[in-house]
Design a protein that fits this description.
It comes from viral metagenome. It contains 17 helices and 11 strands. It is an alpha+beta fold. A hairpin with a 7-residue loop joins strand 7 and strand 8. The strands form 3 sheets. The protein has a 7-stranded mixed beta sheet with strand order 1-4-5-6-9-7-8. It has a two-stranded antiparallel sheet with strand order 2-3. The protein has a two-stranded antiparallel ribbon with strand order 10-11. The protein is globular, with a radius of gyration of 27 Å. The C terminus is likely disordered. The longest helix is centred in the first third of the chain and has 25 residues. Among the domains are: about 90 residues; about 200 residues, Alpha-Beta Complex (Lambda Exonuclease, Chain A), CATH 3.90.320.
Length: about 525
């Protein structure tokens, strides 16, 4: 039995809608907070709770059953009002999963993709590339503009710094950033395989009309036959935090800026966690065995069945009944191999080659031999055997309401940066703290972690003979103290690389449809029975 009548429910729905509208329109920047939705619901519930208390003459004091029933009914009303706001005013911050919301307009999307492909791109990590990035705001750390005066000051100081490409010369193979870069291609391969699509890279894209904004999306779906055609993808490889499917503040801002710059409305936020086997033996031992795991048909578990063709499984059955050890672990998780090389540059740089998904052991050995021959000019370091432990993919929509309020702040920020570059920015320098220890200047990197490969020594020792190079590398590992990276100097080295940015208000603020007249809102909230 409902305690709130139909008439009271309609009135509460209208009131909830107006409160939601007023709260969000007062400060749309609240959207950046991970628990934005829960905060709004809680605020509205508190306000409407007082109204209910008056209607029921203090019913909240009569007992838990009455109180809980009223709270549950009120929560449903508020959630309906939130749906109306998300449908007509601005979208949900993020969904709990990824799905096809609306199929793409192929011709319209082809035009957008072709435009993005036509933009000239400097070669990544070249002087021209760094010069271009210096002339604009990118989104890897632009979230700082919206947090506090302190973080905004830090961002201004970072962007005023003259270009110093030397700080990017050395690479820490143990830093979280490097881990993310190393596994990004693996994450994309898994995404392509799962959703039967194709991802293309577009580099650092300048905004069409706003000169100080640019974005570097991790990729865009470019397979025209896919229902995800034109959808962006943002990849985060998690090292030591929980994956809850809710984009962190900085990641959500990052995606909004990417979508605005590229004039796209959808982005899949992909989070993955990988672990590495200690040895080849451990990798091979953790293999799905169709006999010992009790599958008489010689088929892997349902999550693994797309890994190989029926012909491959028939061949495997004839060879003793084992499922491909290079495809899935015993628990059905994806696993695979990458090869780590170092270039012979000075300083040397890591380079990774990734075995295609779905290879059998025989197929991998063939690929490995061809790959080693192809990269004879590099130094083979080791094979890395990985396993996918966790994967989350949620849909994030472009939020024009939020961006319309963010743009003036970014314009003001860039004006300040241009002013300080000419008139001086020393007053923005962070206060230096005394450090108890300093890393040696001879350390090969200044990133996070303790263990680094001294590849220069490997080169000097003459590692042309790639056989067993790993032995000499292991002997060349040096233990260094943890280094605290100075965010003022190294911030772009630390934040997971996605150098995203901002805007494409080519749709104009008129199309944003942010400000709804009070009468229009009442019209929406009186017609939500079908929502």
């Amino acid at each position: 039995m409902k305690m709130i009548s139909a008439d009271d429910s309609k009135e509460l729905l209208e009131n909830a809608g107006m409160l939601i509208h007023d709260l969000i329109m007062k400060d749309p920047m609240m959207y950046i907070q991970p628990h934005f939705h829960d905060y709004i619901v809680d605020q509205v519930a508190q306000l409407l709770g007082k109204q209910l208390d008056q209607v029921f003459f203090g019913a909240f004091t009569y007992g838990d059953i009455v109180k809980n029933t009223l709270c549950d009914e009120l929560d449903l009303i508020i959630q309906r009002a939130m749906k109306v706001f998300y449908r007509y005013i601005a979208p949900l911050r993020s969904y709990s999963s990824t799905f096809i919301r609306v199929k793409p307009n192929i011709e319209l999307m082809k035009g957008k993709i072709n435009y993005l492909k036509s933009i000239p791109q400097p070669v990544q990590r070249t002087t021209e590339w760094y010069n271009f990035r210096w002339t604009c705001l990118t989104a890897s750390n632009i979230w700082k503009a919206f947090i506090s005066d302190s973080t905004k000051n830090q961002l201004i100081y970072e962007k005023c710094q003259p270009i110093d490409t030397n700080k990017f010369s050395f690479v820490s193979t143990e830093s979280p950033m490097h881990w993310g870069n190393k596994y990004e291609p693996v994450s994309i391969m898994l995404y392509e395989r799962k959703y039967k699509t194709q991802i293309s890279d577009f580099g650092c894209i300048p905004h069409k009309t706003i000169s100080f904004l640019a974005a570097s999306p991790d990729g865009i779906n470019t397979l025209e036959s896919s229902d995800r055609f034109g959808r962006m993808i943002e990849v985060k490889n998690i090292v030591n935090r929980d994956i809850d499917g809710i984009p962190k503040m900085e990641y959500w801002v990052q995606m909004q800026l990417q979508m605005e710059v590229c004039n796209l409305n959808e982005c899949d936020f992909l989070e993955t966690r990988f672990t590495e086997y200690e040895s080849y033996d451990a990798f091979e031992a953790d293999s799905y065995d169709s006999i010992t795991d009790g599958i008489a048909s010689c088929r892997p578990p349902p999550t693994a069945r797309a890994a190989a063709t029926d012909e491959e499984f028939d061949r495997i059955r004839g060879q003793g009944g084992r499922a491909p050890s290079y495809i899935h672990a015993k628990d059905g998780s994806n696993k695979g191999v990458m090869i780590m090389y170092f270039t012979r540059d000075n300083p040397p740089k890591p380079h990774y080659e990734y075995a295609p998904m779905g290879l059998t052991k025989h197929g991998f050995e063939k690929w490995e031999n061809e790959n080693l021959k192809k990269h004879e000019h590099m130094i083979w370091i080791k094979n890395i055997y990985w396993k996918q432990d966790e994967m989350s993919c949620v849909l994030v929509l472009r939020n024009k309401l939020w961006f319309a309020h963010a743009l003036p702040q970014l314009q003001e920020l860039w004006t300040t940066i241009e002013h300080d570059r000419i008139n001086g920015f020393g007053h923005r320098a962070p206060n230096k703290k005394n450090r108890t220890s300093k890393s040696s200047e001879s350390d090969i990197t200044s990133g996070i972690g303790k263990c680094y490969i001294n590849i220069i020594d490997v080169i000097k020792e003459g590692a042309e003979d790639s056989v067993k190079v790993e032995d000499s590398v292991v002997n060349s590992i040096v233990e260094v103290e943890d280094t605290i990276v100075d965010t003022a100097d190294k911030v772009e080295d630390i934040i997971v690389e996605v150098e995203d940015s901002i805007v494409e208000v080519e749709d104009k603020v008129e199309d944003v449809k942010i400000i709804k007249p009070i009468q229009t809102l009442y019209h929406y909230f009186k017609k939500v029975d079908s929502v």
